[in-house]
Write a structure and sequence with these properties.
RpnA, about 50% helix, single chain, 2 domains, double-stranded DNA endonuclease activity, about 325 residues, about 10% strand, Rpn/YhgA-like_nuclease
Length: about 325
């Protein structure tokens, strides 16, 4: 079964919240653009334009809105492989054309809507790609202006969160959490990871709706645990131990993971004890994130080996039905 890219999942789960995306546009788009768009009209579209071979590197979202009292779109591209693609402007041109073609095919519109491209970047490396299509065209800058007007060209909005200071990260709590994590997880430093978690918990504690805070916390923990990082089991234990002091009793996921690490420590590597702890955690997480676990499936889970159980726990957010879990175990 295909496991969704953790960057893509985290990006889409968070920015699909219209309140978060509206706040992001309000705080990070250039003011002249903010002044022209009706933030209350923003609607997330289901379309994605990333080809299969590029989904490991990019995620995207398309937002429909009113722009200067006309129909328009904001197309947001997230680059999440820690290095800039030199061809981003060309990629964006292709995506813009696809958006327009879809509009023509569906509605036979007499005129095309304006689409403003936005790129979000986070990396230790500096953004080195051309910021306009014209910069990529040999000799474009040497052409007279009256000739340049015949050559396709546009700029995109680049939002590079890599070097933001804490005080520069603005917006509602959920948005601050997202951008803080994007900024700090690129360094591959466990010290920065703990710092980011501490600050994220502080932001989430400011939310009036603590149920929403818990949901964001669990999304965040899933994201961290699924990243391709050299985290040891002790690192994972330290993360959960740090988090459970704040949200332990109110988060099923934190409770389950904390229980797993404690049980493993108590058993000190005894196979039977570890397997039972893993099975208990697996059942609890399936119940929380998929559906109640039938008795028959519970019995089957207790018969699985440690490797299978750990794999289910690691990929719990990829399952949507009980049948998928049964198939995975078979």
């Amino acid at each position: 079964m295909t496991i969704q890219n953790p960057h893509d999942k985290f990006f889409k789960e968070t920015f699909s919240n219209v309140d978060v995306s509206k706040d992001f546009f309000l705080n990070y788009l250039p003011p002249p653009i903010v002044n022209l768009i009706d933030l209350e009209s923003i609607e997330l579209q289901k379309d994605s334009f990333i080809s299969k071979d590029l989904r490991e590197y990019f995620s995207d979202l398309l937002f429909h809105l009113q722009l200067n009292e006309n129909e328009g779109y904001l197309y947001v591209l997230l680059e999440h492989k820690s290095y800039p693609s030199k061809m981003v402007a060309v990629q964006l041109l292709r995506y813009l054309v696809e958006i327009w073609e879809a509009k023509l095919n569906k509605e036979h519109a007499p005129k095309l809507p304006i689409v403003i491209p936005v790129v979000i970047f986070h990396s230790e490396r500096e953004w080195g790609a051309s910021k306009s299509l014209g910069e990529m065209l040999q000799g474009f800058d040497q052409l007279p202006e009256n000739i340049q007007q015949y050559v396709p060209n546009f700029e995109y909005i680049l939002i590079d969160v890599s070097n933001y200071r804490d005080e520069e990260i603005k917006g509602i709590a959920q948005l601050k959490v997202i951008l803080t994590i994007y900024r700090d997880l690129t360094t591959k430093s466990e010290k920065n990871l703990r710092k980011a978690l501490k600050r994220s918990l502080y932001y989430l504690q400011q939310l009036e709706d603590q149920e929403t805070a818990i949901q964001y916390l669990e999304t965040l923990i899933h994201y961290i645990f699924h990243l391709d990082r050299q985290l040891t089991k002790k690192d994972f234990h330290d993360i959960i131990e740090y988090v459970e002091g704040t949200y332990f009793e109110r988060s099923e996921m934190v409770m389950s993971l904390a229980e797993l690490f404690r049980d493993e420590g108590r058993q000190q590597g005894k196979l039977e004890g570890k397997t039972e702890a893993l099975a208990n955690t697996t059942i609890r997480l399936i119940t929380k994130f998929v559906a109640p676990v039938p008795e028959e499936l519970q019995q089957a889970i207790y018969k699985q080996d440690n490797e299978t159980l750990e794999s289910i726990i690691d990929q719990i957010d990829a399952f949507t039905t009980i049948d998928q879990i049964k198939q995975y175990m078979n």
